[in-house]
Automatic annotation (TrEMBL):
It comes from Streptomyces andamanensis. Residues 13-125 form the VOC domain. SUPFAM superfamilies: Glyoxalase/Bleomycin resistance protein/Dihydroxybiphenyl dioxygenase. Gene3D superfamilies: 2,3-Dihydroxybiphenyl 1,2-Dioxygenase, domain 1. This is VOC family protein.
């Protein structure tokens, strides 16, 4: 099964994304039409619905348990030994945000924050290793860390995942840039999940038609043409055309 491809998701590789939403039924309508997703219920998976592309898992939509929580997309990095990785996060100046959560037979999830406060997830796989589809239209394509301290990010995340994450020979699917390159300088540091699309302009037209909005118009990057959008509930994400 595609969900058992654990070898594709070694430590530090982006392996999963989810959206914390006030209304998952509305999320199904929005993202189902935008990306062609279908959905299945998984009660053991925290009450989430899992989005499928061509029958394979690509994301989850999770109901917010507390209205004070942000409406946001979160990227999860593979953590075969979550406990050891959590120790390195603390040693590097980051923190775990609450206790890890066992999600039935699928795996264990935890939320963490880097020294600047950018939130990301960790995923220790059980039955679910991660994306069954990626790098194709309608699925995960990239995650970008927007930071105010690029050298600090190099040090923290490079040490965390024992890898050179940025620059020549860097790990694929994960980059970083100064906040001010795309967003106003006052924007907090954050991770931005990118979904691959056939045409960015067509995807943005669909976003607006479905009740979302364009936050940042299309711009060119080294990894493709990117635009930032906000869904009809306030969760930001990027679409990427290659």
């Amino acid at each position: 099964m595609a969900e058992n491809r654990a070898s594709a998701y070694t430590e530090g590789v982006p392996c999963w994304v989810d959206a914390q939403l006030p209304d998952t039924a509305a999320g199904r309508r929005f993202y189902g039409e935008l990306f062609g997703w279908t959905f299945e219920e998984r009660e053991a998976y925290g009450g989430s619905v899992v989005a499928l592309l061509e029958g394979e898992p690509v994301a989850a939509l999770t109901p917010k348990s507390d209205g004070r929580m942000p409406t946001v997309w979160t990227v999860y990095f593979a953590a075969p030994d979550l406990g050891a990785l959590a120790g390195r996060i603390r040693a590097g100046g980051g923190q775990l945000l609450g206790e890890p959560r066992q999600l039935g037979p699928y795996g264990t999830a935890a939320l963490a924050a880097g020294p600047e406060g950018a939130v990301f997830g960790l995923w220790q796989p059980g039955r679910h290793a991660g994306f069954g589809r990626r790098h194709r239209p309608g699925s995960f394509g990239w995650v970008q860390l927007y930071t105010r301290d690029t050298e600090g990010a190099n040090t923290f995340y490079g040490g965390l995942f024992h890898a050179a994450l940025f620059g020549p020979g860097a790990r694929p699917d994960f980059g970083r840039a100064p906040v001010g390159d795309v967003f106003p300088a006052e924007m907090p540091p954050h991770f931005l999940v990118h979904f691959l699309v056939e045409e960015a302009a067509t995807a943005l037209d669909a976003v607006v038609r479905l009740g979302g909005r364009v936050q940042v118009p299309p711009f060119e990057t080294s990894y493709g043409k990117v635009a930032v959008a906000v869904d009809d509930q306030g969760a930001s994400f990027a679409v990427m055309e290659r």
